Amino acid sequence: MSRKNYSAAEIKKITAEENVQFLRLMFTDINGIIKNVEVPISQIDKVLANKVMFDGSSIDGFVRIEESDMLLIPDLSTFLIFPWGSEHGKVARLICDIHTPAGEPFMGDPRNNLRRVIELMKAAGYTNFNIGPEPEFFLFKLDENEQPTLDLNDDGGYFDFAPIDLGENCRRDIVLELEKMGFEVEASHHEVGPGQHEIDFKYADALEAADNIQTFKLVVKTIARKYGLHATFMPKPLPKIAGSGMHINMSLTNAQGANAFYDASTPDELSAVADHFLAGVLEHARALTAINNPTVNSYKRLVPGYEAPVYIAWSGHNRSPLIRVPQARGTSTRLELRSVDPTANPYLAIASILAAGLAGLKEQATPMPAIDRNIYGMTPEERRASGIADLPSTLHNALKALEKDEVIQNALGPHLYQSFMDSKRHEWNAYRQTVSGWERQQYLSLY
Protein backbone atom coordinates (compact mmCIF):
# COMPACT_ATOMS: atom_id res chain seq x y z
CA MET A 1 0.00 0.00 0.00
CA SER A 2 2.01 2.92 -1.27
CA ARG A 3 1.28 6.16 0.49
CA LYS A 4 1.32 9.63 -0.95
CA ASN A 5 2.39 12.68 0.99
CA TYR A 6 -0.73 14.69 0.34
CA SER A 7 -0.81 18.40 0.95
CA ALA A 8 -3.79 20.03 2.63
CA ALA A 9 -4.67 21.71 -0.67
CA GLU A 10 -4.65 18.36 -2.51
CA ILE A 11 -6.96 16.79 0.07
CA LYS A 12 -9.41 19.70 -0.21
CA LYS A 13 -9.38 19.38 -4.01
CA ILE A 14 -9.95 15.59 -3.97
CA THR A 15 -12.77 15.76 -1.43
CA ALA A 16 -14.55 18.36 -3.55
CA GLU A 17 -14.12 16.37 -6.80
CA GLU A 18 -15.21 13.07 -5.21
CA ASN A 19 -18.23 14.46 -3.32
CA VAL A 20 -16.83 13.51 0.08
CA GLN A 21 -19.34 14.64 2.69
CA PHE A 22 -17.83 13.27 5.91
CA LEU A 23 -14.35 12.88 7.34
CA ARG A 24 -13.55 10.16 9.86
CA LEU A 25 -10.68 11.11 12.13
CA MET A 26 -9.46 7.73 13.37
CA PHE A 27 -7.15 6.68 16.19
CA THR A 28 -6.60 3.59 18.35
CA ASP A 29 -7.05 3.16 22.10
CA ILE A 30 -4.81 1.11 24.36
CA ASN A 31 -6.84 -2.06 23.77
CA GLY A 32 -6.38 -1.82 20.01
CA ILE A 33 -9.96 -0.68 19.40
CA ILE A 34 -10.43 1.77 16.54
CA LYS A 35 -12.04 5.04 17.61
CA ASN A 36 -13.15 7.87 15.40
CA VAL A 37 -14.58 11.36 15.43
CA GLU A 38 -16.68 11.99 12.32
CA VAL A 39 -17.10 15.56 11.11
CA PRO A 40 -18.93 17.01 8.10
CA ILE A 41 -16.82 18.21 5.19
CA SER A 42 -17.68 21.79 6.17
CA GLN A 43 -15.13 21.35 8.98
CA ILE A 44 -12.24 20.37 6.69
CA ASP A 45 -10.32 23.61 7.25
CA LYS A 46 -10.47 23.07 10.99
CA VAL A 47 -9.33 19.44 10.55
CA LEU A 48 -6.38 20.37 8.34
CA ALA A 49 -5.38 23.18 10.72
CA ASN A 50 -5.05 20.61 13.57
CA LYS A 51 -7.78 22.30 15.61
CA VAL A 52 -10.18 19.41 16.25
CA MET A 53 -10.30 18.42 19.93
CA PHE A 54 -11.94 15.50 21.74
CA ASP A 55 -12.47 14.30 25.30
CA GLY A 56 -9.52 12.01 26.04
CA SER A 57 -10.91 11.03 29.46
CA SER A 58 -13.60 8.94 27.74
CA ILE A 59 -11.01 6.76 25.93
CA ASP A 60 -9.49 3.73 27.67
CA GLY A 61 -5.92 4.34 28.78
CA PHE A 62 -5.76 8.01 27.85
CA VAL A 63 -6.10 10.67 30.57
CA ARG A 64 -7.93 11.56 33.75
CA ILE A 65 -11.05 13.72 33.59
CA GLU A 66 -9.23 16.82 34.87
CA GLU A 67 -6.87 16.79 31.87
CA SER A 68 -9.26 15.57 29.22
CA ASP A 69 -8.84 17.86 26.19
CA MET A 70 -6.76 16.28 23.41
CA LEU A 71 -5.94 17.39 19.86
CA LEU A 72 -6.40 15.16 16.80
CA ILE A 73 -3.45 15.72 14.43
CA PRO A 74 -4.23 14.05 11.07
CA ASP A 75 -1.44 12.23 9.24
CA LEU A 76 -2.16 13.48 5.72
CA SER A 77 -0.41 10.47 4.15
CA THR A 78 -3.22 8.24 5.53
CA PHE A 79 -5.98 10.03 3.59
CA LEU A 80 -8.24 7.69 1.65
CA ILE A 81 -11.83 7.54 0.53
CA PHE A 82 -13.77 4.45 1.59
CA PRO A 83 -14.87 2.56 -1.54
CA TRP A 84 -18.32 1.69 -0.24
CA GLY A 85 -20.92 4.30 -1.08
CA SER A 86 -23.29 6.35 1.00
CA GLU A 87 -26.57 7.97 0.05
CA HIS A 88 -25.31 11.08 1.83
CA GLY A 89 -22.03 11.26 -0.10
CA LYS A 90 -18.69 9.55 0.28
CA VAL A 91 -16.75 9.13 3.51
CA ALA A 92 -12.98 9.63 3.76
CA ARG A 93 -10.65 8.89 6.62
CA LEU A 94 -7.51 10.32 8.16
CA ILE A 95 -5.56 8.44 10.83
CA CYS A 96 -4.57 10.83 13.59
CA ASP A 97 -1.85 11.20 16.17
CA ILE A 98 -2.95 12.51 19.56
CA HIS A 99 -1.35 15.67 20.95
CA THR A 100 -1.82 17.61 24.15
CA PRO A 101 -3.45 21.06 24.05
CA ALA A 102 0.10 22.46 24.19
CA GLY A 103 0.84 20.72 20.89
CA GLU A 104 3.14 18.02 22.31
CA PRO A 105 2.81 14.38 21.20
CA PHE A 106 0.75 12.55 23.82
CA MET A 107 2.70 9.51 25.05
CA GLY A 108 -0.49 7.70 25.98
CA ASP A 109 -1.20 7.40 22.25
CA PRO A 110 -0.02 3.99 20.94
CA ARG A 111 0.74 5.45 17.51
CA ASN A 112 2.94 8.21 18.93
CA ASN A 113 4.72 5.61 21.03
CA LEU A 114 5.51 3.48 17.98
CA ARG A 115 6.97 6.58 16.32
CA ARG A 116 9.24 6.98 19.38
CA VAL A 117 10.57 3.40 19.18
CA ILE A 118 11.12 3.77 15.42
CA GLU A 119 13.37 6.74 16.17
CA LEU A 120 15.40 4.52 18.50
CA MET A 121 15.78 2.05 15.63
CA LYS A 122 16.97 4.81 13.30
CA ALA A 123 19.48 5.97 15.91
CA ALA A 124 20.83 2.39 15.88
CA GLY A 125 21.50 2.68 12.13
CA TYR A 126 18.42 1.11 10.50
CA THR A 127 15.92 2.84 8.25
CA ASN A 128 12.92 0.50 8.23
CA PHE A 129 11.33 -2.23 10.32
CA ASN A 130 9.41 -4.16 7.68
CA ILE A 131 6.27 -5.95 8.87
CA GLY A 132 4.20 -8.47 6.91
CA PRO A 133 1.15 -9.51 8.98
CA GLU A 134 -0.99 -12.61 8.40
CA PRO A 135 -4.28 -11.92 10.21
CA GLU A 136 -6.90 -14.66 10.50
CA PHE A 137 -10.59 -14.28 11.28
CA PHE A 138 -13.81 -16.27 11.59
CA LEU A 139 -17.12 -15.62 9.83
CA PHE A 140 -20.27 -16.33 11.83
CA LYS A 141 -23.88 -16.00 10.72
CA LEU A 142 -26.07 -13.21 12.06
CA ASP A 143 -29.49 -13.90 13.56
CA GLU A 144 -32.74 -12.17 12.61
CA ASN A 145 -31.84 -9.31 14.98
CA GLU A 146 -28.47 -8.77 13.27
CA GLN A 147 -26.64 -10.20 16.28
CA PRO A 148 -23.73 -12.66 15.93
CA THR A 149 -24.51 -16.34 16.43
CA LEU A 150 -22.11 -19.24 16.96
CA ASP A 151 -23.15 -20.74 13.61
CA LEU A 152 -20.20 -20.83 11.22
CA ASN A 153 -20.77 -19.88 7.61
CA ASP A 154 -19.17 -23.07 6.22
CA ASP A 155 -17.57 -26.42 7.00
CA GLY A 156 -14.49 -25.84 4.87
CA GLY A 157 -10.89 -26.59 5.74
CA TYR A 158 -7.43 -25.40 4.77
CA PHE A 159 -7.34 -24.08 1.17
CA ASP A 160 -10.85 -25.40 0.41
CA PHE A 161 -12.91 -23.65 -2.25
CA ALA A 162 -16.56 -23.13 -3.17
CA PRO A 163 -19.09 -24.64 -2.67
CA ILE A 164 -17.52 -25.94 0.56
CA ASP A 165 -16.10 -22.50 1.32
CA LEU A 166 -19.32 -20.45 1.36
CA GLY A 167 -17.31 -17.45 2.55
CA GLU A 168 -15.39 -17.32 -0.72
CA ASN A 169 -17.49 -14.54 -2.27
CA CYS A 170 -17.33 -12.51 0.92
CA ARG A 171 -13.57 -12.98 1.08
CA ARG A 172 -13.23 -12.05 -2.61
CA ASP A 173 -15.17 -8.84 -2.03
CA ILE A 174 -12.94 -8.01 0.93
CA VAL A 175 -9.90 -8.43 -1.31
CA LEU A 176 -11.42 -6.20 -4.01
CA GLU A 177 -12.26 -3.47 -1.50
CA LEU A 178 -8.76 -3.64 -0.04
CA GLU A 179 -7.23 -3.31 -3.49
CA LYS A 180 -9.39 -0.27 -4.21
CA MET A 181 -7.91 1.25 -1.07
CA GLY A 182 -4.34 0.63 -2.21
CA PHE A 183 -3.53 -2.67 -0.50
CA GLU A 184 -1.41 -5.15 -2.43
CA VAL A 185 -3.04 -8.44 -1.46
CA GLU A 186 -0.64 -11.35 -1.88
CA ALA A 187 -2.96 -14.27 -1.04
CA SER A 188 -6.34 -15.13 0.43
CA HIS A 189 -7.56 -18.55 1.42
CA HIS A 190 -9.68 -20.63 3.75
CA GLU A 191 -7.82 -21.50 6.92
CA VAL A 192 -7.69 -24.74 8.93
CA GLY A 193 -10.85 -24.17 10.98
CA PRO A 194 -14.38 -24.15 9.53
CA GLY A 195 -15.47 -20.58 8.89
CA GLN A 196 -11.87 -19.38 9.27
CA HIS A 197 -10.10 -17.22 6.70
CA GLU A 198 -6.77 -15.51 6.06
CA ILE A 199 -5.84 -12.62 3.78
CA ASP A 200 -2.16 -11.71 3.47
CA PHE A 201 -1.08 -8.29 2.22
CA LYS A 202 2.31 -6.90 1.29
CA TYR A 203 4.74 -5.86 3.99
CA ALA A 204 5.18 -2.20 4.93
CA ASP A 205 7.28 -0.16 7.31
CA ALA A 206 6.26 -0.45 10.97
CA LEU A 207 3.94 2.55 11.29
CA GLU A 208 2.20 1.99 7.98
CA ALA A 209 1.88 -1.74 8.74
CA ALA A 210 0.12 -1.01 12.04
CA ASP A 211 -2.22 1.42 10.25
CA ASN A 212 -2.88 -1.23 7.59
CA ILE A 213 -3.83 -3.85 10.18
CA GLN A 214 -6.40 -1.50 11.70
CA THR A 215 -7.77 -0.57 8.28
CA PHE A 216 -7.91 -4.26 7.32
CA LYS A 217 -10.01 -5.12 10.37
CA LEU A 218 -12.44 -2.33 9.57
CA VAL A 219 -12.85 -3.46 5.95
CA VAL A 220 -13.31 -7.14 6.90
CA LYS A 221 -16.05 -6.35 9.43
CA THR A 222 -17.79 -3.91 7.09
CA ILE A 223 -17.93 -6.25 4.08
CA ALA A 224 -18.87 -9.31 6.16
CA ARG A 225 -21.88 -7.40 7.47
CA LYS A 226 -23.08 -6.90 3.89
CA TYR A 227 -23.17 -10.69 3.52
CA GLY A 228 -25.18 -11.19 6.70
CA LEU A 229 -22.04 -12.37 8.49
CA HIS A 230 -20.11 -11.26 11.55
CA ALA A 231 -16.33 -11.23 11.23
CA THR A 232 -14.46 -11.71 14.48
CA PHE A 233 -10.75 -11.51 15.24
CA MET A 234 -11.30 -13.20 18.61
CA PRO A 235 -8.43 -15.71 18.97
CA LYS A 236 -10.48 -18.72 20.07
CA PRO A 237 -14.22 -18.28 19.54
CA LEU A 238 -14.94 -22.04 19.56
CA PRO A 239 -13.32 -24.97 21.38
CA LYS A 240 -11.68 -27.94 19.68
CA ILE A 241 -10.76 -26.12 16.47
CA ALA A 242 -7.71 -24.00 15.65
CA GLY A 243 -7.77 -20.40 16.81
CA SER A 244 -6.94 -17.24 14.87
CA GLY A 245 -3.42 -15.89 14.91
CA MET A 246 -1.67 -12.97 13.27
CA HIS A 247 1.82 -14.17 12.38
CA ILE A 248 4.24 -11.26 12.08
CA ASN A 249 6.96 -11.47 9.41
CA MET A 250 9.75 -8.97 10.06
CA SER A 251 13.06 -7.69 8.78
CA LEU A 252 15.27 -4.62 9.15
CA THR A 253 16.56 -2.41 6.36
CA ASN A 254 20.04 -0.97 6.87
CA ALA A 255 21.36 2.46 5.91
CA GLN A 256 22.43 1.11 2.50
CA GLY A 257 18.85 0.05 1.73
CA ALA A 258 19.63 -3.68 1.99
CA ASN A 259 17.93 -6.37 4.07
CA ALA A 260 20.01 -6.38 7.25
CA PHE A 261 18.96 -9.97 8.06
CA TYR A 262 20.66 -11.43 4.93
CA ASP A 263 24.30 -12.41 4.65
CA ALA A 264 25.25 -14.68 1.74
CA SER A 265 28.58 -15.56 3.38
CA THR A 266 27.17 -17.47 6.37
CA PRO A 267 26.12 -21.15 6.24
CA ASP A 268 22.43 -20.36 6.76
CA GLU A 269 22.68 -16.97 5.00
CA LEU A 270 21.45 -15.20 8.13
CA SER A 271 23.43 -12.16 9.22
CA ALA A 272 24.75 -11.44 12.69
CA VAL A 273 22.07 -8.74 12.84
CA ALA A 274 19.38 -11.39 12.31
CA ASP A 275 20.93 -13.63 14.99
CA HIS A 276 21.12 -10.84 17.57
CA PHE A 277 17.60 -9.60 16.77
CA LEU A 278 16.23 -13.16 17.00
CA ALA A 279 17.98 -13.64 20.35
CA GLY A 280 16.42 -10.44 21.68
CA VAL A 281 12.90 -11.48 20.76
CA LEU A 282 13.44 -14.93 22.31
CA GLU A 283 14.92 -13.39 25.47
CA HIS A 284 11.87 -11.16 25.99
CA ALA A 285 9.27 -13.59 24.65
CA ARG A 286 7.44 -14.11 27.93
CA ALA A 287 6.89 -10.39 28.52
CA LEU A 288 6.05 -9.85 24.86
CA THR A 289 3.25 -12.37 25.25
CA ALA A 290 1.30 -9.93 27.43
CA ILE A 291 1.33 -7.41 24.58
CA ASN A 292 0.95 -9.84 21.68
CA ASN A 293 -1.76 -11.92 23.36
CA PRO A 294 -3.57 -9.36 25.49
CA THR A 295 -6.91 -11.01 26.28
CA VAL A 296 -8.04 -13.82 28.55
CA ASN A 297 -9.22 -15.64 25.44
CA SER A 298 -5.78 -15.40 23.79
CA TYR A 299 -4.52 -18.19 26.03
CA LYS A 300 -7.23 -20.61 24.89
CA ARG A 301 -5.42 -20.49 21.52
CA LEU A 302 -1.91 -20.95 22.93
CA VAL A 303 -2.36 -24.62 23.82
CA PRO A 304 -0.78 -27.78 22.33
CA GLY A 305 -2.50 -29.51 19.44
CA TYR A 306 -3.87 -26.55 17.47
CA GLU A 307 -0.80 -25.27 15.57
CA ALA A 308 -0.25 -22.22 17.79
CA PRO A 309 3.17 -21.97 19.49
CA VAL A 310 3.49 -22.90 23.15
CA TYR A 311 7.27 -23.08 23.60
CA ILE A 312 10.07 -20.52 23.28
CA ALA A 313 12.28 -21.83 20.49
CA TRP A 314 13.11 -21.15 16.86
CA SER A 315 13.70 -23.14 13.69
CA GLY A 316 14.14 -22.84 9.96
CA HIS A 317 12.71 -26.27 9.26
CA ASN A 318 9.50 -26.82 11.21
CA ARG A 319 6.42 -24.87 12.21
CA SER A 320 6.07 -25.75 15.89
CA PRO A 321 8.44 -23.15 17.43
CA LEU A 322 7.64 -19.61 18.46
CA ILE A 323 9.82 -18.13 15.71
CA ARG A 324 10.22 -19.62 12.26
CA VAL A 325 12.85 -18.53 9.75
CA PRO A 326 11.29 -19.07 6.31
CA GLN A 327 13.64 -20.54 3.69
CA ALA A 328 13.49 -17.52 1.36
CA ARG A 329 16.70 -15.49 1.29
CA GLY A 330 17.98 -12.30 -0.29
CA THR A 331 15.52 -9.43 0.02
CA SER A 332 12.92 -11.87 1.44
CA THR A 333 15.03 -12.96 4.44
CA ARG A 334 12.86 -12.57 7.51
CA LEU A 335 11.79 -13.86 10.90
CA GLU A 336 8.22 -15.01 11.49
CA LEU A 337 6.84 -14.59 15.02
CA ARG A 338 3.93 -17.03 15.26
CA SER A 339 2.43 -16.27 18.66
CA VAL A 340 0.80 -12.89 17.97
CA ASP A 341 -2.99 -12.89 17.70
CA PRO A 342 -5.25 -10.28 16.08
CA THR A 343 -6.54 -8.85 19.38
CA ALA A 344 -3.07 -7.33 19.87
CA ASN A 345 -2.87 -3.57 19.54
CA PRO A 346 -0.61 -3.47 16.45
CA TYR A 347 1.11 -0.25 17.48
CA LEU A 348 2.05 -1.68 20.90
CA ALA A 349 2.94 -5.13 19.53
CA ILE A 350 5.23 -3.85 16.77
CA ALA A 351 6.90 -1.34 19.11
CA SER A 352 7.54 -4.05 21.71
CA ILE A 353 8.87 -6.62 19.22
CA LEU A 354 11.17 -3.99 17.72
CA ALA A 355 12.44 -2.95 21.16
CA ALA A 356 13.17 -6.59 22.06
CA GLY A 357 15.13 -7.08 18.85
CA LEU A 358 17.05 -3.83 19.33
CA ALA A 359 17.96 -4.96 22.86
CA GLY A 360 19.39 -8.17 21.38
CA LEU A 361 21.40 -6.12 18.89
CA LYS A 362 22.71 -3.80 21.59
CA GLU A 363 23.80 -6.75 23.72
CA GLN A 364 25.01 -8.75 20.68
CA ALA A 365 23.01 -11.61 22.14
CA THR A 366 23.34 -15.14 20.77
CA PRO A 367 20.17 -17.16 20.15
CA MET A 368 19.69 -20.64 21.51
CA PRO A 369 20.38 -23.43 18.99
CA ALA A 370 17.63 -24.05 16.45
CA ILE A 371 15.16 -26.81 17.31
CA ASP A 372 14.55 -28.74 14.12
CA ARG A 373 12.27 -31.44 15.49
CA ASN A 374 8.61 -31.38 16.50
CA ILE A 375 8.64 -29.75 19.94
CA TYR A 376 5.14 -31.05 20.70
CA GLY A 377 6.55 -34.58 20.46
CA MET A 378 9.35 -33.93 22.96
CA THR A 379 9.06 -34.94 26.60
CA PRO A 380 9.30 -32.24 29.32
CA GLU A 381 12.76 -33.59 30.16
CA GLU A 382 13.88 -33.29 26.51
CA ARG A 383 12.59 -29.73 26.33
CA ARG A 384 14.41 -28.76 29.52
CA ALA A 385 17.62 -30.34 28.26
CA SER A 386 17.30 -28.26 25.08
CA GLY A 387 16.70 -25.05 27.03
CA ILE A 388 13.13 -24.70 25.80
CA ALA A 389 10.91 -22.68 28.14
CA ASP A 390 7.12 -22.38 27.99
CA LEU A 391 5.20 -19.30 26.98
CA PRO A 392 2.89 -17.97 29.73
CA SER A 393 -0.26 -20.05 29.92
CA THR A 394 -2.58 -17.30 31.18
CA LEU A 395 -2.91 -13.54 30.92
CA HIS A 396 -2.05 -13.36 34.63
CA ASN A 397 1.28 -15.13 34.11
CA ALA A 398 2.08 -12.98 31.08
CA LEU A 399 1.46 -9.81 33.10
CA LYS A 400 3.79 -11.12 35.82
CA ALA A 401 6.48 -11.62 33.17
CA LEU A 402 5.93 -8.09 31.89
CA GLU A 403 6.31 -6.72 35.43
CA LYS A 404 9.85 -8.15 35.47
CA ASP A 405 10.96 -6.97 32.01
CA GLU A 406 12.25 -3.40 31.84
CA VAL A 407 12.99 -3.57 28.11
CA ILE A 408 9.35 -4.21 27.22
CA GLN A 409 8.15 -1.75 29.85
CA ASN A 410 10.38 0.90 28.28
CA ALA A 411 9.02 -0.04 24.85
CA LEU A 412 5.62 1.13 26.08
CA GLY A 413 6.79 4.08 28.13
CA PRO A 414 5.53 4.85 31.65
CA HIS A 415 2.05 6.08 30.69
CA LEU A 416 1.11 3.23 28.36
CA TYR A 417 2.71 0.61 30.58
CA GLN A 418 0.69 1.67 33.62
CA SER A 419 -2.53 2.05 31.62
CA PHE A 420 -2.02 -1.35 30.00
CA MET A 421 -1.36 -3.08 33.33
CA ASP A 422 -4.38 -1.43 34.96
CA SER A 423 -6.66 -2.44 32.08
CA LYS A 424 -5.42 -6.03 31.92
CA ARG A 425 -5.44 -6.60 35.69
CA HIS A 426 -9.05 -5.45 35.68
CA GLU A 427 -9.82 -7.89 32.85
CA TRP A 428 -8.12 -10.78 34.65
CA ASN A 429 -9.87 -10.06 37.94
CA ALA A 430 -13.26 -9.92 36.21
CA TYR A 431 -12.51 -13.28 34.55
CA ARG A 432 -11.44 -14.84 37.86
CA GLN A 433 -14.79 -13.92 39.38
CA THR A 434 -16.79 -15.51 36.56
CA VAL A 435 -18.10 -19.07 37.00
CA SER A 436 -18.19 -20.86 33.65
CA GLY A 437 -20.63 -23.45 32.37
CA TRP A 438 -17.75 -25.97 32.27
CA GLU A 439 -17.20 -25.56 36.02
CA ARG A 440 -20.87 -26.10 36.83
CA GLN A 441 -20.97 -29.13 34.57
CA GLN A 442 -17.87 -30.62 36.20
CA TYR A 443 -18.51 -29.86 39.87
CA LEU A 444 -22.13 -28.98 40.68
CA SER A 445 -23.39 -32.55 40.91
CA LEU A 446 -20.08 -34.18 41.81
CA TYR A 447 -19.58 -32.18 44.99
- Helix fraction, binned, reads 25-40%
Helix/sheet category: alpha+beta
Radius of gyration: 22 Å
Distance between the termini: 59 Å
The total count of helices amounts to: 13
Q: What integer is the average pLDDT?
A: 89
Backbone shape: globular
Poorly predicted parts: 157-165
Beta-strand level of the residues, as a percent range?
15-25%
Number of distinct beta strands: 18
Biggest β-sheet description: 10 strands, mixed
How would you describe this structure to a colleague?
There is one protein chain. 34% of the residues lie in helices and 22% in strands. The chain is α+β, with helices and mostly antiparallel strands and 447 residues long. The strands form three sheets. Strands 7, 8, 9, 10, 11, 12, 13, 15, 16 and 17 form a ten-stranded mixed β-sheet that branches. Strands 1, 2, 3, 4, 5 and 6 form a six-stranded mixed β-sheet that branches. Strand 9 and strand 10 form a beta hairpin. Helix 3 (110-123) runs parallel beside helix 9 (346-363) and helix 7 packs antiparallel against helix 9. The longest helix is centred in the C-terminal third of the chain and has 27 residues, at 406-432. It is globular and about 70 Å long. The termini are far apart.
